[in-house]
Amino acid sequence: MGNDGVTLEPGKHLLHYRLIEKIGEGGMGVVWKALDTELQRHVALKVLPPELTNNEERRLRFQREAQASAALGHANIAVIHGVGEDGGVRFLAMEYVRGVTLRQHMAGNAGDQREWLRLALQVAEGLAHAHANGVVHRDLKPDNVMVTTEGQVKILDFGLAKLLEPRPGLEGEGGSRADTETALDTISRELTRAGKVYGTVSYMSPEQARGGAIDARSDLFSFGITLYEIVTGKLPFAGDSAMDTLSAILRARPEPVVASKPDTPAELQRILDKCLEKEPRDRYQDTRDLVVDLRRLRRETDSQAAQRIETTSGVQVQTGKPRRSALGWVAGALVLVAIAVAAWFVLPRLGQSPGAQRDLRPVQLTANPPGNPITATAISPDGKYLAYADYEGIYFRLLSSGEDHRFELEEGFCFR
């Protein structure tokens, strides 16, 4: 059923959108995959429940939030195409994202430090863009973040949680114990009426739990909870009930990440601690500062991973300089350029020259032979391949098997 008793089923039209299949359901409504028959593209239609749209004040607030969110243009934010109403059914048309939720993705990549850091950085970059444009998410959690089939993050439902907020009545910072308990009870009843799930309560900021004013710093607290869960596989604040969880968010300190993940970088713990400060004034004050810290941590993590891969693959680099020197980075970049030329310029031309063929064959190499030292290396972005160059050519090593491949061009080939 839809709003006001309207039956929704595959094949039914809402304006120029034809419903295909139901792909999700939650407190914010039912989500359908649909076809935009005017533009011939797939979209996601979020059909909103009547209790969120029959109230005129909430309808206007929703309209304003949808307009603000639709103005966000960023690679890590799902696009909102528009708001519509047909036969009493009010809906939101959004970008259809092919992929899985962040929760589902990380369940299949548990323990992959480089992967969770890559995705966390994309989430932070999307948040920074939204916050710079005055839009706060209010309901950030792993289920509201999609990872596409290409590995790109898409944050969903920006600003929609404002529909669920009770009227602000308490300050976000401070307040008496009685005020806090009253606010918790109000929030709990509001969430129950709105059909919100327990998981959303687990990602609230303290000021949101108190019913106070929400700003970008509240999203950063939710981001900290999300990152903590991605890294450790568990929530930093948990209880047997929604009230217990809200109480923990307000009063408890989370267990250090290193307790369950001993190899966690100290810098990550610092970032998490700053995101999860109880008082908004003690957190990051600008999301762009969080992005800068995550980028730095990712560079350091990638550099350490590259060194480990080079050591375990039996390939040594003889540059005469420290491994992180500018010369080393330039040499690695040259290898990538050479690979790009081979892949995008040379190889297509081989098919055009009758006397030229690609000879890509496994070869057994002695690591760093004295008479022919390896001059530079580079790691593929997915960490699966090691590319390295010597005086004779460019080689690729599949790290999972240790198999080497080399590009060789037969006589008769020339650039034209």
Describe the fold and architecture.
Helix 4 packs antiparallel against helix 8 and helix 8 (216-232) packs antiparallel against helix 10. Helices cover 38% and strands 19% of the residues. It contains twelve helices and 14 strands. The protein has 416 residues and is an alpha+beta fold. Strand 12 (385-390) and strand 13 (393-398) form a beta hairpin. The termini are far apart. It folds into three domains: 3-95, 2-Layer Sandwich (Phosphorylase Kinase, domain 1); 99-303, Transferase(Phosphotransferase) domain 1 (Transferase(Phosphotransferase), domain 1, Orthogonal Bundle), CATH 1.10.510.10; 326-409, no CATH class. A six-stranded antiparallel β-sheet has the order 1-2-3-4-6-5, covered by helices on one side. The protein has a five-stranded antiparallel β-sheet with strand order 10-14-13-12-11, sandwiched between helices. The protein has helices spanning 50-53, 56-70, 102-107, 113-132, 177-194, 198-201, 206-209, 216-232, 242-251, 266-275, 287-312, 326-350, and strands spanning 13-14, 17-26, 29-36, 41-47, 80-86, 89-95, 99-101, 145-148, 153-155, 358-362, 376-379, 385-390, 393-398, 403-409.
